[in-house]
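Handout, section 4.2: multi-component inputs.
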Amino acid sequence: MIRLSWLQFRAQTVTAAAALAAAAVILAATSAHRGVNAGFYHWLYMAGIVALYLTPALIGTFWGAPLISRELEAGTYRLAWTQSVTRTRWLAVKLGLGCLVSMTTAGLLSLMITWWSSPLDQLDQFNNYRLSPLTFGARDLTPIGYAAFAFALGVTIGLLIRRAVPAIAVTLAVFAAVQVAVPLEVRPYLIPPVRTVSPLSTSNITGTGDGGPGAPGVGGQPGPNLALGAKVDIPGAWVYSVQFTLPDGSTDLGPEPQACRSGSGNACNTALARLHLRQVVTYQPASRYWAFQCAETGLYLLFALLLAGFCTWRVNRPDPAGRR
Amino acid sequence: MSAVIEASGLGKAYGRTWALRDCALAVPEGHVVGLVGPNGAGKTTLLQLAAGLLAPTRGTITVLGERPAAGPAQLARVGFVAQDTPVYTRMTVADHLRLGAWLNPGWDDSLARRRTGQLGLDPKQRAGSLSGGQRAQLALTLALAKRPGLLLLDEPVASLDPLARREFLRMLMEAVAEYGTSVVLSSHLVADLERVCDYLIVLVASQIRVAGEVSDLLAAHRRLSGPRRDPATLPAGQDVIEESHTDKQTSLLVRTSEPVHDPAWAVTPVSLEDLVIAYMNPANQIPPRRPQLGVVS
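Output:
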């Protein structure tokens, strides 16, 4: 069964190998300038991120979704399932091999692009620090988890819809939705964030306002009250929120001091210092990068396994092919 | 003699529609079984149940003593050629033979090579570019080289032209003679099967109308023609399968195990085709079978 799966998946593997070779050539040829953050090289840096998000999506739609739906659609399942191999084994080998090739493809591409991008990642410009929601999913391990999940998702949807083209479309839609939902709704809760409370140094304040429309900065409540902007200097951290409180913990800072409305910056700073403000930062430190990488990759791999288990159950249910 | 297919109370429903119901069968070993019925009668459903591609809604079916597709060993003993003979269009003929060798422990490679050689199939040709007849032959080769105890063929000749049809059946019969495989093949035309099968199952509107050895069936049916007469006046033991009347004449197809002695009748034997057509006609009420005429397993 492994040899048959390989025969049937060989074309995809060759395509993947060719694409990886092309990527390797481009990245190697430009590697001398890979720290340059301008023009073509910056474009290439962004293209690398896009490629790493696109690869799992393509794997799920074009490798995963047709894997079984095409057999059901063309009727070849009647040939495959009447050889001396149980459906469970047939599915396990097809899924296993496909997943392996998918994960290897995504892993190698991620390895190359992570290496190529590392000087720019360290520049911390454009908020492209490694833990930032956008960059995080296009570095190191996460693309491997995405690829495995996308492949299993495509196979599952193909098995349920039983037609290749609709399965491709639905897989793409579902996977895109997952890729948007996870950074927003799941990843922030994988590890509880760190919360630090520190006295707000006036030298950190970048702006003040009355909290009306267009008030500067983060953390201030809109309204007639004082709104503040302040620098947060935690290198590489993924900052969830910055809040300002009075020493008693109240977030209601009161009206903006008169000194800040008119008068000099110094007078304003003095008036602010008198409030003894505190800065509350909720964030994930950069040191948790690998913990997050492992947690998120593990989560995707777990769901890929669950989908594989579901497929095994489904294919052994009566009439997985429906009425033909 | 043991049964290759045994079914009792077998039924298969798709939603609320029954594709097959109350099917009781005991097909003995060593026969070429013709499964005949109009399109949509449930032939494919019955064969797919036997191949394990479908699961019964009601009742049970065993094939070669086991539940269909119960495991690799059971699968290895049953060869199946599905309707429209599906093949992997992008794989070559040689790839298909490799597939067979990889997936079947009992694979007979010399048989497969000899057959493809005889058929003139180019090993390098893609299966998608084969003609219907060649594809059917390739599918048959795959099923035969498994060396199964039972070969199930679903409408194998439906898409073939008359010449390819004859050729396919000839090769099938050669293989049966050589390896002693039991065969069940379906068709909606009895003419396709007349020459090859020695056991017949007629399936109409999801129910089995008659099943038995062809020689027994032919021996147990007579055509009676004579002056017009009410079939109800026939003696016990003569069951009317089909009747037709003109003003003066009556023609009956009866099932009887006894010779007909009534001098009023002109008694003639029936042909297999007449018999099947009489059983296939949904207007004919088939009287319940008597025990001595039942299919003995």
